[in-house]
């Protein structure tokens, strides 16, 4: 081999190794400044509380402040867009949630989306939904509700926290699985929907257990069934919907995402540190108070989970013919 050819090969091999060397260097120096965690809901909402809980513990492990930036609006799209357009260096992160998976189908022409522009870094939690009714409705369980709805087609107002969000799609999935005919009545957020249910302006609603639990406990609304595969600790006497409607499950979730192109070494570092945080007793205890279960996964497992959730809700959006402007 002549000297020129040998030199060329050496230079080529060195160039090929540069991305790996650079990635390792980035991971070792990361984070070099405060990290912005963009949250898609206002301060005080349960996802915001969880973001602050995890962010505080994560800050201690990373040695840099985690700054919560609330950017509500657009069903989560505003927050997603701001992160998707940020530098892919791990210093701007997104509080990912099931609405971002749903939005892939609701907004097929959106300039950015979870599927195209965000790397799923780490899962945070699972949330359970519950089928709720006003106590004046003469039903005690899921089977009663289905029978009553079939005897009164089109007469039950099944409300939600907004068109296209998970409380709406949980109802659409339930309608498809049971063959009942109800009227969808959307509200702007959980407080308005729960207020209408308590007042008897609507008869039924799907909402998270954590949000609705105080009203259930006070007897102002009745819980008929939970959307998880097993009964939940806060409502041990409430059956799962799947006990009556086999295969019915709805899971709300939160996670952390980063702009596409974020180095794998940084993604892996964040994932490992978040996994440690989610196993801290104080974090688990606070999540338990919110009836939220920690959900630990690798980046690959979380990416697979979000892809499957996107596909699942895409089918429901299409079947229900839900369209948003």
Please give a handful of descriptors for the protein shown.
47% helix, alpha/beta, D-Maltodextrin-Binding Protein, domain 2, 2 domains, 325 residues
Highest CATH level, the class of the largest domain: Alpha Beta
Rg on CA atoms, Å: 23 Å
From the N-terminal CA to the C-terminal CA, the straight-line distance is 65 Å
Shape: globular
Major sheet summary line: 10 strands, mixed
Secondary-structure arrangement, i.e. CATH architecture of the largest domain: 3-Layer(aba) Sandwich
Mean pLDDT: 91
The number of distinct helices, counting runs of at least 4 residues, comes to: 12
Proportion in helices: 40-55%
Tally the structural domains. 2
Order of helices and strands: HEHEHEHHEHEHEHEHEEHHEH
Care to count the β-strands?
10
CATH topology of the largest domain: D-Maltodextrin-Binding Protein, domain 2
For CATH, the homologous superfamily of the largest domain is named as: Bordetella uptake gene, domain 1
Strand residues, percent:
15-25%
Structural class: alpha/beta
Low-confidence stretches: none
């Amino acid at each position: 081999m002549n000297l020129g050819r040998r030199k060329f090969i050496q230079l080529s091999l060195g160039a090929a190794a540069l991305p790996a060397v650079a990635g390792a260097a980035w991971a070792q120096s990361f984070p070099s400044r405060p990290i912005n965690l963009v949250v898609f809901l206002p301060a005080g909402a349960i996802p915001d509380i969880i973001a602050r809980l995890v962010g505080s513990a994560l800050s201690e492990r990373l040695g840099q402040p985690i700054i919560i930036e609330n950017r509500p609006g657009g069903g989560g799209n505003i927050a997603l867009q701001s992160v998707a357009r940020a530098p892919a260096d791990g210093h701007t992160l997104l509080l990912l949630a099931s609405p971002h998976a749903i939005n892939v189908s609701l907004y097929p022409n959106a300039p950015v989306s979870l599927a195209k522009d965000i790397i799923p870094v780490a899962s945070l939690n699972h949330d359970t939904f519950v089928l709720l009714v006003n106590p004046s409705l003469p039903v005690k369980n899921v089977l009663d509700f289905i029978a009553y709805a079939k005897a009164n087609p089109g007469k039950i107002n099944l409300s939600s926290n907004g068109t296209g969000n998970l409380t709406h799609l949980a109802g659409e999935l339930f309608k498809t699985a049971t063959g009942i005919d109800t009227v969808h009545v959307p509200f702007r957020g959980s407080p308005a929907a729960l207020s209408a249910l308590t007042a008897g302006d609507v008869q039924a609603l799907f909402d998270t257990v954590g949000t609705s639990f105080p009203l259930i406990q006070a007897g102002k609304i009745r819980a008929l069934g939970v959307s998880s595969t097993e009964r939940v600790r806060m409502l041990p006497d409430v059956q799962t919907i799947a006990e009556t409607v086999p295969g019915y499950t709805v899971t709300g979730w939160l996670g952390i995402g980063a702009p596409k192109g974020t180095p794998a070494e940084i993604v892996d570092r964040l994932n490992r540190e978040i996994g440690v945080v989610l196993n801290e007793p104080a974090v688990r205890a606070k999540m338990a108070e919110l009836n939220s279960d920690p959900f630990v996964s690798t980046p690959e497992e979380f990416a697979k989970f979000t892809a499957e959730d996107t596909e699942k809700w895409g089918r429901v959006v299409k079947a229900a013919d839900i369209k948003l402007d």
